[in-house]
Every structure is written in structure tokens, then in C-alpha cells.
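User: My collaborator sent over this chain with a note saying "see what the structure looks like." That's all I know about it. Can you take a look?
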Amino acid sequence: MRLSMLAVVALSGMALGGVPATAAPTGLSPQDSAFVTAAGYGGNFEVAGGKLAQARAASAGVKAFGARMVTDHTRAGNKLAALAGQNGATVPDGTSPARQNILGVWSRLDGKAFDCSYVPAAYLDHVGAIGLFEEEAAHGTNPDLVRFAKDTLPTLREHQQMISTVLAKPGCP
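Assistant: Without extra context I'll predict from the sequence alone. Here is the result:
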């Protein structure tokens, strides 16, 4: 399968969550603080991308996946925000600049062009998200965030499976 240029560009902003190198001091370890920031940016990206998928996709499967992203990532984002707040941290509003650029491109695409750009990027984003959450589950120091990461992993894996089904369908150049 060939990836679109946008998907390749998307990888550069997603591989490490597109997280800025600095974060405000909190009661969290550097690992946990970085997780809150990266997961927050990633979840916000998934919600915004899901809304665009619902509005702009050609495929019913992509539209349904977008709706699921909005529902699941909003729920997870609210839980993450509550856990972060209990520790003097905040989840970022919006998403990283690299991901904001991707959303800008997607907002100008419709139909099959949207699908062919969104689907591989959504798959790759979930590969990165799973890695991020596995890292927190294995190496985080805040028990609530570790539990959140472990509890969220099955949903992220389900998302990856859902989008891989859509990705396997031919039709994109």
C-alpha cells in the first residue's frame, strides 16, 4: 500500500505526539506530565479529525469511524482532564501545530480525497497512540494515570482494528 504524501507528513507530527519539548511544572513526574500533554493533544486531534470525517468523508465506514472517534476520545479526554487536574496539571486545548496543519488540509478536502488522506493517517496515529499508552502503562509513576492508560488501551486497539478494515479496502491512489 502506498501512503499519500499527507500521511507521510502526518507521521512526522504524530510519531512523538507532536508535543512541544517544554511543559509547565506539576505534581507529576516528567513521564506522566509528557503523557498528559501528548495524550491530550492526540485526543483533541482525534475528536477534530472525527468531526471532519463525519462531515467530509465519502465512505459510510469512514463517517462511522469519525463518529466513534468523537465519542470515545471525548470521553477519554474528559477523564484525562479530571485526572490531570487532580495533580495540578492541565490537558492542552486544541492540538499541536503540526496536527493543526493536517486538520487544515483535511478541512479543504471532500469525499474520496478526504477518505484517502484521513484513513492512513488515522491508522498511523493509532499506532503512535498505542505506543504512548503502552509506555505510560509500563513506566508511569502516577497510579491513576497508569490505570487510565491500561484501561484505554483496549479501545485504542479496537480503533486501530476498525480503521485497518477501512484501510484494507482498495480505491485510493
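A starting point for your reply to your collaborator: The longest helix spans residues 111-139.
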